[in-house]
Write a structure and sequence with these properties.
The complex is a heterodimer. By secondary structure, chain A is an alpha/beta fold. Chain A is 33% helix and 15% strand. Chain A has 9 helices and 11 strands. In chain A, the strands form 3 sheets. Chain A has a 7-stranded mixed β-sheet with strand order 2-3-4-1-5-6-9, sandwiched between helices. In chain A, a hairpin with an 8-residue loop joins strand 7 (218-220) and strand 8. Chain B has 3 domains: 6-135, Nucleotidyltransferase, domain 5 (2-Layer Sandwich); 143-254, no CATH class; 261-457, Rossmann fold. In chain B, a hairpin with a 2-residue loop joins strand 9 and strand 10. The chains are: A alpha/beta, B alpha/beta. Chains A and B meet through helix 6 and strand 10 of A and loops of B. The structure holds guanosine-5'-diphosphate and magnesium ion. Magnesium ion binds next to helix 1 of chain A.
């Protein structure tokens, strides 16, 4: 575990953004766990001691206490850095003679404010996001988006079943961002310069898995010992579309339109994500179609719990995709 | 005139009445000093004699012209007054005068007109004698009381009749009948007397009494033909219902007669202590009530179930069966023990949304002898729903043993003589839908359960009896 704050400015920034309760905090904690388990060169560290503490605390809650991390009222104060592997010191023919610095990607997390169409509907216990252009939190999100070239947007299909406000949460910030980018001359080809990873969260929920199964979107990685079902990235857009059909407001389809409107098709990628993954019996160590639910809802005011081990699905992948794409862009902030 | 004459006349009239066919009337013509009285006697549909009479004095018959002025006309008038046109009906002439010339004349004309007629000598007036004979007429039909009998096999009530007075009975005859009334009806219980001729009974009389439930020793007395009185009942009054209404008021089926029964009580013993105590005490009430009513005919099984644990470090309490097909006393002792143990905390609150209902149903289904026809009541007392057989959107974890409560309930419901009842923590409109299956026959709310009503709905105690339009024949005598 790396608690040492990373020094130096990140090469790129990623803004993680989604409605309150869409699973951002859980995703962050799961990311930390997943990166630790993967044992490859990527790691996540706090950009300052408070952020490190926050990360450690949430991760512990998730992995040991089997409880979901508590909602944070002031999430946007924390910042983390994803540190990638250093480029190879020497290639076989020494094409890269000079050891480069490791990729550093700043990560900020934001509760999406209710948009222009803000409905005022909030999930119980969720973090309220006041509307209004003067809201400093909206300002912060916009600042962060402007400085980022990578976006992780969390779409919570369960919330969409009940509230149907994903479009509300997404559209207004995108429109404002486009305004700013236009003003600074960065809206050249009519699209934002950003890459966006759209994470359909809570893939482990029976309703979501069932939708994927009905559309025959499930695959199993051959080298996955647990045989957990997944949706390949190419099919995740279809899953997203399918989940939009059961949206409470019927507006979810507009999310797809907005994405296509603002982002270059090459820069959008969908992920069917689950921070906690499916339940797998300790003894059989195999995914069981009859018994895969890993989240146990709490009674009345109790918190939900996690039943078994965490098996994060598509938690690292969106970050790596963004990391790789952003690393390929010459960092504008790099000083030689 | 000496008594023997009166006796002879009486016997002759009685005999003629007894011989009276259903169709033809008996005509009795009394020729007295002051005129002619004709009696027309007939049997009605119930075989009771009915009589009418007409009187005419000599002046009536002779009119203005006088008795002797036109004898042919006077003769005609006398014959008309005798009203005996029927060639079939029997005619009796009664000479009640002593030597009155007009009477002798009239008698002669009548005799000539009815050569086959018997001629009796009697003292006037003969009306009293006719009435006496009619009142004393022995029954030509059997008189029977309409009663309800319950077919022992099917519990279906059916109408039948119980003989009160056989053919030939005379007024003053008495018969005792024991009847029962099960429930008060708005129009009371009808005491209907029918006569039988051929395949169909014929209604003679209906009167109703506001009977309270109970057994009645009724004495029926034949007052006179066509009239039966009852004693041993509250005051009888005319019944407003006609025969068809009375018959159609008979229910198709009676609430089941009580026989042997097997009560399987399954109680959820996890949750809050006072909730568990409340459930156990409801189970106790039902067992007590049923055993009070069924006595040794009741067998009781007791099961206790709790929550599933999904935490390997906290092994769960499996479903327990403290009593199986035991006497009520033994089951109540087992219930005492459960009460002492209190709520099961193990496995709780790890999975608070559901309980091992499906495991309990599996145990019941496995333990029941499927060839045993004894009526069986499976009563579940609990609050949480069952676990699904597999992960589903309910967000309730699947049963670790993959028992399927839907299938188990369906097979129990198909088992012969098996009914499912439930007492649920939540009000019936708020309960998890599974409880509507668990309590398919009767579902009650823990806090507001009418224990007797529930037990009755499940056939453990007699339900409030249905009103029968006629008395039930009490065959215990
Ligand atoms: N089924 C499921 N539920 C999740 C997952 N992640 C989060 N949740 C649920 O969503 C709630 C909110 O998550 P949180 O991470 O606090 O959302 P945030 O407000 O966006 O930070 C949690 O309490 C969980 O109940 C997941 O991967 N699967
Ligand atoms: Mg959160």
């Amino acid at each position: 575990m790396q608690s040492e704050p990373s020094r130096g400015r990140p090469d790129h920034n990623i803004s993680m953004w989604g409605a309150p309760g869409s699973g951002k905090t859980t995703l962050l904690a799961a990311l930390f766990i997943a990166l630790t388990r993967r044992n490859d060169d990527w790691k996540i560290v706090g950009s300052d001691p408070a952020s490190s503490d926050y990360l450690i605390e949430r991760t512990n809650a998730l992995s040991r206490g089997k409880v979901f991390p508590e909602a944070s009222m002031a999430l946007e104060r924390y910042h983390w850095t994803l540190i990638g592997p250093a480029p190879q010191k020497t290639g076989l023919w020494g094409r890269k003679a000079k050891p480069g610095p490791p990729a550093r990607i700043g990560l900020g997390m934001f509760d999406a404010p209710g948009g222009l169409f803000g409905t005022g509907r909030r999930p119980a216990g969720g973090v309220g996001a006041p509307d209004g252009a003067g809201d400093p939190r909206r300002q912060e999100l916009l600042d962060s988006l402007e400085q980022s070239r990578g976006i992780v947007f969390l779409f919570d299909p369960i919330r969409e079943f009940t509230f149907g406000d994903a479009f509300d949460h997404m559209h207004a910030p995108l429109a404002r961002l486009a305004e700013r980018m236009l003003a600074s001359g960065e809206f050249t080809d009519g699209k934002l310069p950003h890459h966006i990873a759209v994470c359909v969260t809570k893939f482990d929920d029976p309703r979501v898995l069932e939708t994927a199964e009905k559309r025959r979107l499930l695959t199993v990685d051959l080298d996955d010992p647990y045989r957990l079902p997944r949706v390949a990235s190419e099919d995740a857009r279809e899953l997203f579309h399918e989940l939009c059909q059961v949206s409470a407001s019927g507006n979810a389809d507009m999310v797809l339109n907005a994405l296509d409107q603002y982002f270059h098709p090459d820069r959008i990628r969908f992920f069917a994500t689950s921070s906690i993954g499916f339940y797998v019996d300790r003894r059989t160590k195999r995914f069981d179609w009859d018994d895969f639910q890993n989240m146990v809802p709490g009674e009345a005011d109790e918190d939900s719990r996690i039943r078994g081990q965490l098996h994060p699905i598509n938690v690292v992948e969106p970050m790596l995709w963004l990391g790789q794409r952003l690393a390929a862009i010459r960092p504008s902030t790099e000083i030689s | 005139m000496p008594e023997p004459d009166r006796d002879l006349s009486r016997k002759a009239i009685a005999q003629a009445l007894a011989d009276l066919a259903d169709t033809a009337p008996l005509t009795l013509v009394e020729v007295a000093t002051d005129g002619v009285t004709t009696f027309l006697l007939q049997r009605d549909g119930n075989g009771s004699p009915r009589g009418r009479s007409w009187s005419a004095t000599w002046p009536d018959l002779a009119g203005e012209r006088g008795w002797d002025a036109d004898p042919a006309e006077t003769r005609k008038a006398v014959l008309r007054a005798s009203r005996a046109p029927s060639p079939f009906g029997e005619v009796i002439l009664v000479a009640a005068s002593s030597g009155d010339p007009k009477a002798e004349q009239a008698l002669d004309w009548l005799r000539a007109a009815h050569p086959a007629a018997q001629v009796l000598r009697a003292e006037a007036p003969v009306a009293a004698l006719v009435r006496e004979v009619m009142a004393d007429d022995p029954l030509t039909r059997s008189y029977e009381l309409v009663v309800v009998l319950i077919d022992p096999g099917t519990d279906r009530p059916r109408l039948t009749s119980r003989q009160l007075f056989p053919l030939g009975s005379r007024p003053g005859a008495r018969t005792r009948v024991s009847v029962r009334c099960e429930a008060v009806g708005p129009n009371g219980t009808a005491f209907a007397v029918v006569t039988w001729q051929g395949p169909e009974p014929r209604l003679l009389s209906v009167q109703s009494a506001p009977l309270a439930p109970g057994r009645y020793e009724v004495t029926a007395e034949l007052v006179r033909p066509g009239r039966v009185s009852f004693t041993g009942l509250p005051a009888l009054s005319p019944d407003p219902r006609d025969w068809n209404q009375l018959v159609s008021a008979l229910p198709d089926r009676l609430p089941g007669g009580l026989g042997p029964a097997h009560l399987v009580c399954a109680v959820e013993v996890c949750g809050a202590d006072d909730q568990v105590a409340e459930r156990l005490s409801r189970a106790r009430q039902v067992i007590n009530l049923a055993s009070g009513e069924l006595g040794d005919l009741l067998q009781v099984s007791l099961l206790a179930y709790a929550a599933h644990s999904y935490d390997a470090s906290a092994p769960e309490f499996p479903v327990r069966v403290p009593a199986w097909k035991a006497g009520a006393g033994e089951a109540l002792d087992a219930l005492d023990a459960l009460e002492e143990q209190g709520a099961v905390a193990r496995g709780y609150p790890y999975h608070p949304q559901a309980a091992q209902v499906e495991d309990m149903l599996a145990v019941v289904a496995e333990r029941l002898d499927w060839a045993d026809p004894t009526p069986t009541v499976v009563l579940t007392v609990g609050g949480r729903p069952p676990h699904p057989a597999r992960t589903d959107p309910s967000m309730i974890l699947p049963c670790p043993r993959r028992h399927d409560w839907r299938k188990l309930l369906a097979s129990l419901r198909k088992r012969q003589g098996t009914v499912l009842g439930a007492i649920c923590d939540q009000a019936t409109d708020q309960t998890h839908q599974a409880w509507h299956g668990i309590g398919a026959t009767a579902l009650a709310h823990l806090e507001a359960v009418d224990v007797r009503g529930l037990a009755a709905a499940l056939g453990l105690v007699a339900s409030s009896p249905v009103h029968l339009p006629f008395p039930l024949l009490d065959e215990t005598e």
